[in-house]
Write a sequence for this structure.
Protein backbone atom coordinates (compact mmCIF):
# COMPACT_ATOMS: atom_id res chain seq x y z
CA UNK A 1 0.00 0.00 0.00
CA UNK A 2 1.34 3.40 -1.02
CA UNK A 3 0.69 6.01 1.66
CA UNK A 4 1.04 9.72 0.82
CA UNK A 5 0.91 12.72 3.16
CA UNK A 6 0.94 16.16 1.55
CA UNK A 7 -0.90 19.46 1.27
CA UNK A 8 -2.30 21.42 -1.64
CA UNK A 9 -0.91 24.87 -0.82
CA UNK A 10 1.56 26.72 1.34
CA UNK A 11 0.50 28.25 4.66
CA UNK A 12 -2.15 30.91 5.14
CA UNK A 13 -0.98 34.44 5.93
CA UNK A 14 -0.74 33.60 9.63
CA UNK A 15 1.46 30.53 9.01
CA UNK A 16 5.09 30.21 8.04
CA UNK A 17 6.72 28.80 4.93
CA UNK A 18 10.09 28.86 6.66
CA UNK A 19 12.71 30.31 4.33
CA UNK A 20 10.34 30.41 1.37
CA UNK A 21 8.78 33.67 0.19
CA UNK A 22 5.00 33.98 0.07
CA UNK A 23 1.95 32.15 1.32
CA UNK A 24 -1.19 30.39 0.03
CA UNK A 25 -2.57 32.02 -3.09
CA UNK A 26 0.71 33.55 -4.20
CA UNK A 27 2.89 32.41 -7.08
CA UNK A 28 6.06 32.46 -4.95
CA UNK A 29 7.48 29.18 -3.67
CA UNK A 30 5.94 29.65 -0.22
CA UNK A 31 2.52 29.72 -1.85
CA UNK A 32 2.65 26.22 -3.28
CA UNK A 33 5.75 24.34 -2.19
CA UNK A 34 4.88 21.87 0.55
CA UNK A 35 6.37 18.74 2.01
CA UNK A 36 5.27 15.35 0.77
CA UNK A 37 5.90 12.01 2.44
CA UNK A 38 5.61 8.83 0.37
CA UNK A 39 5.76 5.45 2.10
CA UNK A 40 5.57 2.21 0.14
CA UNK A 41 7.48 -0.61 1.88
CA UNK A 42 9.56 -2.82 -0.41
CA UNK A 43 8.87 -0.47 -3.35
CA UNK A 44 10.40 2.91 -2.42
CA UNK A 45 13.71 3.48 -0.64
CA UNK A 46 13.14 4.41 3.01
CA UNK A 47 14.51 7.65 4.43
CA UNK A 48 15.50 9.19 1.07
CA UNK A 49 14.81 12.74 -0.08
CA UNK A 50 13.58 13.48 -3.60
CA UNK A 51 14.61 16.86 -5.00
CA UNK A 52 12.38 16.68 -8.11
CA UNK A 53 9.35 18.92 -8.36
CA UNK A 54 6.25 16.84 -7.74
CA UNK A 55 2.68 18.06 -8.14
CA UNK A 56 -0.60 16.63 -6.90
CA UNK A 57 -1.54 16.52 -10.61
CA UNK A 58 1.16 13.84 -10.93
CA UNK A 59 -0.89 11.44 -8.83
CA UNK A 60 -3.28 10.38 -11.65
CA UNK A 61 -0.57 9.22 -14.10
CA UNK A 62 1.46 7.73 -11.24
CA UNK A 63 -1.48 5.75 -9.80
CA UNK A 64 -2.46 4.64 -13.30
CA UNK A 65 1.07 3.34 -13.90
CA UNK A 66 1.17 1.54 -10.53
CA UNK A 67 -2.18 -0.11 -11.31
CA UNK A 68 -0.88 -1.28 -14.70
CA UNK A 69 -3.17 1.00 -16.67
CA UNK A 70 -2.45 3.15 -19.67
CA UNK A 71 -3.37 6.75 -20.38
CA UNK A 72 -4.39 7.59 -23.92
CA UNK A 73 -1.35 9.44 -25.38
CA UNK A 74 -3.75 11.82 -27.16
CA UNK A 75 -4.99 13.03 -23.79
CA UNK A 76 -2.81 15.91 -22.63
CA UNK A 77 -2.31 15.82 -18.86
CA UNK A 78 -0.59 18.36 -16.65
CA UNK A 79 0.86 15.60 -14.47
CA UNK A 80 3.50 12.97 -15.17
CA UNK A 81 4.39 9.58 -13.70
CA UNK A 82 6.73 10.42 -10.81
CA UNK A 83 7.51 6.85 -9.77
CA UNK A 84 11.07 7.07 -11.17
CA UNK A 85 11.71 10.22 -9.06
CA UNK A 86 10.39 8.49 -5.95
CA UNK A 87 12.84 5.67 -6.64
CA UNK A 88 15.76 8.12 -6.88
CA UNK A 89 16.02 8.64 -10.64
CA UNK A 90 15.97 12.06 -12.32
CA UNK A 91 12.83 13.04 -14.22
CA UNK A 92 12.23 15.61 -16.92
CA UNK A 93 9.19 17.81 -16.74
CA UNK A 94 7.63 20.51 -18.82
CA UNK A 95 7.68 24.07 -17.53
CA UNK A 96 5.36 24.66 -14.57
CA UNK A 97 2.91 27.58 -14.55
CA UNK A 98 0.97 29.36 -11.80
CA UNK A 99 -1.54 32.16 -11.95
CA UNK A 100 -3.31 33.98 -9.15
CA UNK A 101 -5.29 37.13 -9.93
CA UNK A 102 -2.93 39.35 -11.99
CA UNK A 103 0.19 37.41 -10.95
CA UNK A 104 1.67 34.74 -13.18
CA UNK A 105 4.80 32.62 -12.86
CA UNK A 106 6.65 29.99 -14.84
CA UNK A 107 9.40 27.66 -13.69
CA UNK A 108 11.62 25.89 -16.18
CA UNK A 109 14.47 24.02 -14.59
CA UNK A 110 16.22 26.28 -12.10
CA UNK A 111 14.75 29.48 -13.58
CA UNK A 112 11.52 31.08 -12.40
CA UNK A 113 9.92 34.22 -13.79
CA UNK A 114 7.23 36.03 -11.79
CA UNK A 115 5.04 38.66 -13.46
CA UNK A 116 3.29 40.86 -10.89
CA UNK A 117 1.18 43.24 -12.89
CA UNK A 118 3.79 45.37 -14.66
CA UNK A 119 6.77 44.18 -12.59
CA UNK A 120 8.80 41.11 -13.30
CA UNK A 121 11.19 39.13 -11.20
CA UNK A 122 13.61 36.42 -12.28
CA UNK A 123 15.07 33.91 -9.84
CA UNK A 124 17.49 31.01 -10.04
CA UNK A 125 15.87 28.66 -7.52
CA UNK A 126 18.94 26.44 -7.30
CA UNK A 127 20.88 29.39 -5.87
CA UNK A 128 18.04 31.44 -4.33
CA UNK A 129 15.18 29.29 -3.07
CA UNK A 130 13.90 32.20 -0.96
CA UNK A 131 13.34 34.28 -4.13
CA UNK A 132 15.13 37.33 -2.75
CA UNK A 133 17.54 38.23 -5.58
CA UNK A 134 15.85 39.51 -8.73
CA UNK A 135 18.15 38.62 -11.64
CA UNK A 136 15.98 40.07 -14.43
CA UNK A 137 18.47 42.81 -15.33
CA UNK A 138 21.39 40.36 -15.39
CA UNK A 139 19.69 37.69 -17.53
CA UNK A 140 17.44 39.37 -20.13
CA UNK A 141 17.71 36.26 -22.33
CA UNK A 142 15.99 34.18 -19.63
CA UNK A 143 13.33 36.88 -19.15
CA UNK A 144 12.56 36.85 -22.88
CA UNK A 145 12.49 33.04 -23.08
CA UNK A 146 10.28 32.60 -20.02
CA UNK A 147 7.95 35.45 -21.01
CA UNK A 148 7.36 33.67 -24.33
CA UNK A 149 6.54 30.46 -22.43
CA UNK A 150 3.98 32.31 -20.29
CA UNK A 151 2.33 33.92 -23.32
CA UNK A 152 2.12 30.58 -25.14
CA UNK A 153 0.67 28.93 -22.02
CA UNK A 154 -1.91 31.69 -21.56
CA UNK A 155 -2.94 31.35 -25.21
CA UNK A 156 -3.32 27.57 -24.88
CA UNK A 157 -5.35 27.88 -21.68
CA UNK A 158 -7.65 30.46 -23.28
CA UNK A 159 -8.11 28.24 -26.35
CA UNK A 160 -8.82 25.19 -24.13
CA UNK A 161 -11.43 27.07 -22.12
CA UNK A 162 -13.22 27.99 -25.35
CA UNK A 163 -13.30 24.35 -26.44
CA UNK A 164 -10.73 24.65 -29.21
Amino acid sequence: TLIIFTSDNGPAKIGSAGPLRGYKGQVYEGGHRVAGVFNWPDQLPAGKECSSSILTMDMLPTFTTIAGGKIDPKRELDGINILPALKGKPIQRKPLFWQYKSNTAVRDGAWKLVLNGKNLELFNLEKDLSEQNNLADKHPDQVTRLTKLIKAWQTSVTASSKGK
In short: The CA atoms of residues 156 and 162 lie 10 Å apart.
